[in-house]
Amino acid sequence: MKKRKVEICVISDVHLGTYGCHASELLDYLDSIKPKILILNGDIIDIWQFRKSYFPKSHLKVVKKLISFTSKGTKVYYITGNHDEMLRKFSDTHMGNFSLIDKLVLNLDGKKAWFFHGDVFDSSVHSAKWIAKLGGYGYDYLILLNRLINWCLIKLGKEPYSLSKKIKGSVKKAVKFISDFETTATEIAIENNYDFVCCGHIHEPKMIHQTTKKGSTLYLNSGDWIENLTALEYNKKRWKLYHHKKIEKVSEEEYFELETKLSGQLLDSLLFSK
C-alpha cells in the first residue's frame, strides 16, 4: 500500500489499555502514512487504568508500530499527559529519534508552534485526582455501553449514536470547561507569540483562528481515538484535521465479557480508591 507523505502528524488521547480505544483503526491510519515528525500529544497509554489486565494484540501492535517509526527515520516526540503522567519522571529523555518530553516548541516555516497535552488547565486532575480517575472508569463504562447500542443500531440499519457527545453537549459545565480550556490555551499562546497552539486532553478535535487585542493564533486540538478518531496533519505550510472511519464490530458475547470485567473493576475503584 502506498503511504501518504506527511511532514508532521499529531495524535493524542489514544488510551491504550482501555476498552474504548480504537486501536485497529489507529493502526490502519498509521500504516497509511509516512511522517517526517510524529507527535504523540499525551494519554497514549492509559497508565491510570493499566491494572485492568487488558492489553489486547491490537494495542500491542500500535506500540510496535510507533516504535518502528523511529527506526525508519521518523522523529517521534512523546509528550506526557495526565493518564501517562508516571512517565514524567523520565521527561527530557532522548534516545536516537525518540524523545520523551512534557512540551514542545517547533519552528514551522518561520512560525512558532507550541505543543502540550493540556491537563495543566484541568483543576480536577490536580486537586481531586481520585475523582478524575473514578470518572475515567465511568467514561469507560459509558463507551462500552455505547458500543452495544451502536451494534444494535447498525443491525437495524440506523446511524451510530454518541452518548458521551450528547451528554457533554447538554451539560453546561462540560461546555463551559471546553470553552475555558480553549480560551486559556489561546490567550497564553498569543501572549508568548506562538502562531500555533496544539493540545489534546479534552477529546474535542478542532482547528480555529482565535484573535484578541494582543494578537492572534491558530488553536489546534488533535481529538482522540476513543470517539472521534482524529489526527492533525501539517503539509506545505497548512494544517488539516484528519477523520478516520470508525468500525463498530463488538459482538454481544464480547460486550458481556467486557461488562463483567469492567463492573468488577468499577466496584474495586469505589472501594479502594484514595
Automatic annotation (TrEMBL):
CDD domains: MPP_YbbF-LpxH
Stored Pfam families: Metallophos
Alphabetically ordered keywords of this record: Cell inner membrane, Cell membrane, Manganese, Membrane, Metal-binding
Domain Calcineurin-like phosphoesterase: 8-205
Protein name, UniProt field: UDP-2,3-diacylglucosamine diphosphatase
Organism: Flavobacterium celericrescens
Upper classification of the organism: Bacteria, Pseudomonadati, Bacteroidota, Flavobacteriia, Flavobacteriales
